[in-house]
Design a protein that fits this description.
Four copies of one chain form a homotetramer. Chain A has helices at about 5-15, 30-40, 75-90, 115-125, 145-150, 165-175, 195-200, 220-225, 260-285, and strands spanning about 20-25, 45-55, 60-70, 95-100, 105-110, 130-140, 155, 180-185, 205-210, 230-240, 250-255, 290, 295-300. Chain A is of the alpha/beta class and about 300 residues long. In chain A, the strands form three sheets. Chain A has a seven-stranded mixed beta sheet with strand order 7-6-5-8-9-10-11. In chain A, β12 and β13 (about 295-300) form a beta hairpin. Chain A starts with a helix and ends with a strand. Chains in contact: A-B, A-C, A-D, B-C, B-D, C-D.
Chain lengths: ~300, ~300, ~300, ~300
């Protein structure tokens, strides 16, 4: 990272050294909020933000995200986790504790279209995206100059239908070595194998150049142009093995009209893709998304 | 029509008694705008608004809509039409001349869900929709009270897959007798036959309860809920023989999230349907739409 | 109320007979959420929705709104209130308990422009606004027919600068007799006295025909037209003694351009006023607004 | 300019070598459109886009913008201008002919906040802003590194209330030497003298960090925070001698709520400022804006 970004990140970490987040889902029943807030109080924590949702208060699934300040969080993290197990077991919770000052590590995958990558780098440089962009992997050389100018390691790994497994094994090695927390497919035009996807379940975010489920598949802007649509959209989602069918995180649209040729639709689409992908990544980094079946709960 | 609406319409007609519109499409070539504006000038008309579009300035299709003030328009309408034929022939134009003071006659088709009908009636009463709602046709009795309270004739014509041809012959008779200019399918849940559609080509506007082409077909809100979309949309379009595939006029969306159950998606959807349908109708009434192939040029 | 609305309201009440809401503000400190959720759990209540906000986690003001299901809520309401006092005192809480099935009573004040009144009546009839519109008070006769057609009592009370005190005493009498919970100024063009405002503190919602604080005062649309603005807005706010300066609840805007004459700006403005006022009222009815100084916390 | 941008600009120029625009305003009367389109036809030009507006068809001011393709435009430019004078005189027109391939030269003025400058540089690099950013002038050194990295000349000219005249004389010299067409105040925090403004009448675009006319003057975000607004806006306008009172070009807003501290309002505001300023500049570069009194006609 360059020195300005390092400074921004360090300031952020210092401001959030005692800030934690707990994300929980479990069968709904009375007493969950009381149990969680009692526990946090017993640890000396002050709740800063709390969001919850239940698919059905009588017997559905309950989701809660609590953000809190806890003195000496880093030293107490292990004991908190250990102590919380008792509460968690009582309510059959799946849960996750995160220290906000542990900055997440991102790997960006990109092919030849660089607008989404560029947006992420800009937001990162301007301090709007607090993360560690640890590396960029591409099956093309197009992004190298831009990436290396920011002192981010760039890995050129040729990838195609033919050498998929080989390419993925290289990628997985690099990802593991760098302890990557989140993979961002910023217009990466290769399909990932089920095995790769499984390794990073709910940790791969893709941007789809359409308002799903419309125009799935190839050449969406050509399809949209032919159909004469009045809106163009984009969708960010977690990657699953069903192509373009993973849990949707965010969608947005912009207005177009009869004057917009395919080239223009692509330009407008690119602009939506940029913002929709950046939003999804921010929510993920702030632990605001819980995947439930093929949907997301977003506590934005 | 009740007296308040009659008064609004009469005021409108008086203000627009010399207001005309000409809509043209023809192969693009230099000199079209000059020829049309020369012609209007020779008739003593002043151009108020002019919109044009060309699919391709070198050899595409050219579209123009001109709105103008012309003293004594009503008396001169025939001679203008006759005189314009010469210009039109020279450029191989398809064209249409409209006197704004000739209020268009609308027939609304509706089934059991009344929100779109209700919206149109409200806008009509409040003077936001200047038209003659001549009659309402329904395959249910649900709308009768609302419609007749406004002194609009209501025709109950049972319609189903089985009696389609019979029902349509009744409908067509009523439409013809009332010189209907535009049919609005305001959540009318019956399919129209090709023969019916052909009789009113580009004169039937439908509202589709989805952001086409996503969720074509039955139960779109159930589909949208299952897919976990973050946006809900609606589409208004001219009716062709391809179900839900006619030229799109207008689309819009609203944001939803994980908390929205199917019931709520329907409510939100209904709200978008209302505004998207009303917008499409207004554009049609103001002669702002030209159908070109399976697309629309909208001079809004 | 007419029978359809009565039916809707009764269905709503039945579905929410055990639904309660508690709104709290107090000095922030650790343990508040734990105390409140423990209390609700001890009463057998299940938390359905919970929103909180702190102006400053170290020593600011803390706000929380909890919606819950509690078996036999109506019978237990008093004992719950009594029992909660202990918790409340411990944390120096200001608080309010509401039974959702106790439908709030609204009085609408209106002058000659009826679009906001009309919107509220439409939403009420269509079941989008669950409330008891108990009466309408006006200093003009313009609204009488519309209001009485829905069997809502209409009170014509002439009001002007000169007879303000007399008019208000009449109004206050009617409001008290009808146990009014919320007064909606739906384009009511009279100023209220400090004494009146104090009687219904944070219970009077006004719609201001501008995007405050721009164009305060008379003829905002003329001002906006002259200034050549590209956006038109509206603001709903609680009424205080500073004219148009009370806590803002909601604002919205629409795009305009050079073609929009004053008449059109007014029409567009009226449309925003309608939706902005309706939104503010819904949030108030759902106890989603807490007034804090001259601002609002809205848990939407 | 760096080589990529040079290439983009050259491609643009080549595609538009025969593309011209004529902007006209004159007293409204019948025959203007006919005269203009006849003239263009006589020159062999094909009209590509045409927009018009009249403040009042019976005796107001008429505005028209015509974009056309004319073979050998560059060679014929002078003779076209000469020949058009006759038409112009007949209708008392003020008019301007522009060759699209003559790329406009921009000077950006900036102080310490760089987000607007940064946005313009990004859009310029990505080919979304086709212009010649000839130089940057600043009263601070903050922007130097960023600007010079793109090979754009950077001029540090200290400016304050005290040395205003001296600083402006330096600035004017540089602007004149570089044949600057448009000055962009991208958060330049110095007031310009009437004499400076007059030299570049309707050629200076400013971004105001507020939704004018709300929060004119210092610390708008502090004011907005204190007032508890629910929307934050920004305004781009031409600079006149009335501070922040020049003709508005574009405005936009974003939604905020009680959780947004002043810092966050500023961040959100900065994001709107960026897009609103960029939009205004694009419209200016495409000759889409006509200033009329203290307002703009924007043919977007």
């Amino acid at each position: 990272m360059n020195s300005l970004i390092v400074k921004q990140v360090n300031t952020f970490k210092k401001h959030h050294e005692n800030r934690g987040r707990i994300l929980i889902n479990c069968p709904d029943q009375p007493g969950i909020v009381a149990a969680v807030s009692d526990f946090l109080y017993s640890q000396g924590a002050n709740i800063i933000e709390s969001n919850q949702y239940s698919t059905n208060p009588s017997g559905g699934t309950f989701f809660i995200r609590v953000e809190f300040e806890c003195p000496n969080l880093k030293e107490k993290e292990r004991s908190i986790s250990k102590d919380f197990t008792e509460v968690a077991n009582k309510f059959s919770m799946k849960w996750k504790l995160a220290c906000v000052s542990e900055i997440k590590k991102i790997a960006i995958f990109v092919s030849k279209e660089l607008h989404c990558l560029q947006e992420l780098l800009w937001e990162w440089q301007s301090g709007d995206l607090i993360t560690d962009i640890s590396l960029v992997i591409s099956n093309h050389e197009a992004a190298r100059v831009t990436v290396e100018a920011l002192n981010i390691p760039f890995y050129y790994i040729p990838a195609s239908k033919e050498n998929r497994l080989h390419a993925e094994s290289e990628q997985l090695k690099i990802l593991a070595e760098n302890n990557i927390d989140l993979i961002v497919l910023a217009r990466y035009m290769q399909i990932l194998t089920p095995s790769f996807v499984k390794t990073y379940e709910n940790q791969i975010i893709n941007i789809h150049h359409s308002f799903l489920p419309a125009f799935i598949g190839a050449k969406p802007y050509e399809q949209a142009y032919k159909r004469g649509v009045k809106l163009i959209g984009a969708t960010s989602h977690y990657v699953t093995n069903d192509l373009d069918e993973g849990p949707i995180i965010e969608q947005d649209i912009m207005r177009v009209d009869h004057r917009d040729k395919i080239e223009n639709l692509k330009k407008i689409g690119a602009s939506i893709e940029r913002s929709v992908l950046a939003t999804a990544i921010k929510w993920h980094l702030e632990d605001r998304i819980i995947v439930h079946g093929n949907k997301t709960i977003v506590f934005s």
